[in-house]
Amino acid sequence: MTTQFYAPPSSIRGQRVILDGDEAKHIARSLRKQPGDVVYVVDGNGHRFEVKLDHVKPKQVVGNIRKTTENAGEPPYHLTVAIGLLKNRNRFETFLEKAVECGVSSVVPLETDRTEVQSLREQRASNILTAAMKQSGRSVRPDLTEPMSIAQIVETRRAGTDECWICHEAADAEPLSAGVNASPVTPGKRPRLLVFIGPEGGFTESEVRAARDAGAEPVRLGPHRLRTETAGIVAASAISLAYAAANPMDRASFL
């Protein structure tokens, strides 16, 4: 896969792209690119640019956009994972990285009755999301919202959600892999999906009841007890695989 670089929208000026900081150093020193070489740049908002360089220095790299691809490397759905905050922030950050690789579009840190931590390292999390977007061949950097409760998520997001699940060890819960209603997606009409992942210790019965009352379908992730971050990765992977089977993606979109 071709290396991707990141430039925020503010660095895209007409048909010119300006990269600085670590991105410029990587291009100029590590890869030893020269004027006339071509690189690929994503802006985190769904645009991938094919850029021909005309100025290459360790402090700044500048080039002209030759081609723009919309939503390059993006899945045919919008998946929000609402996941319990973890006491071990490193494990939550591991989830963030893998969530990007698995096609998650939005992550909502979940405040629950059993949540022990109410915050995360915002700048570090942002850096992880950006690096994972570049590495995985995507062009959209997933959103990371402020921590929310199940009630807040239901109020703000449920009305616009096509499918919703809550991962729980309920006796009547079917496997998530069987509950995903994946089908060919019409371009421009990506289904909006929402999955709830509990914190360490799981959801309380009242939280499960609130989610189910709002339309969330209880699902299982397999026969074993999973850590929170593992459950999030497994859920995102199951949804990704289901939609990939129904909507073969253009391999060229990943360079």
* SSE pattern: EEEHEEEEHEHEEHEEHEHEH
User: In DSSP terms, counting alpha (H) and pi (I) runs of 4 or more, how many helices?
Assistant: 7
Helix fraction by DSSP (H/I, runs of at least 4): 25-40%
C-alpha termini separation: 5 Å
Shape: elongated
Strands, total number: 14
pLDDT < 50 stretches: none
Counting helices, strands and paired strands, the structural category is: alpha/beta
What is the overall pLDDT average? 90
Radius of gyration based on Cα positions: 20 Å
Strand content: 25-35%
Q: Please outline the major beta sheet.
A: 8 strands, parallel
Task: Provide an overview of this structure.
- The chain is α/β, with parallel strands linked by helices.
- Helix content is 31%, strand content 28%.
- It is built from seven helices and 14 strands.
- It has helices at residues 21-30, 89-101, 122-136, 150-157, 176-179, 205-213, 228-246; strands at 4-6, 12-13, 16-20, 38-42, 47-57, 60-70, 78-84, 106-111, 143-144, 148-149, 163-167, 174-175, 192-197, 217-220.
- Strands 7, 8, 9, 10, 11, 12, 13 and 14 form an eight-stranded parallel beta sheet that branches. The chain has a six-stranded mixed beta sheet with strand order 1-4-5-6-3-2.
- Helix 2 packs parallel to helix 3 and helix 2 (89-101) packs parallel to helix 7 (228-246).
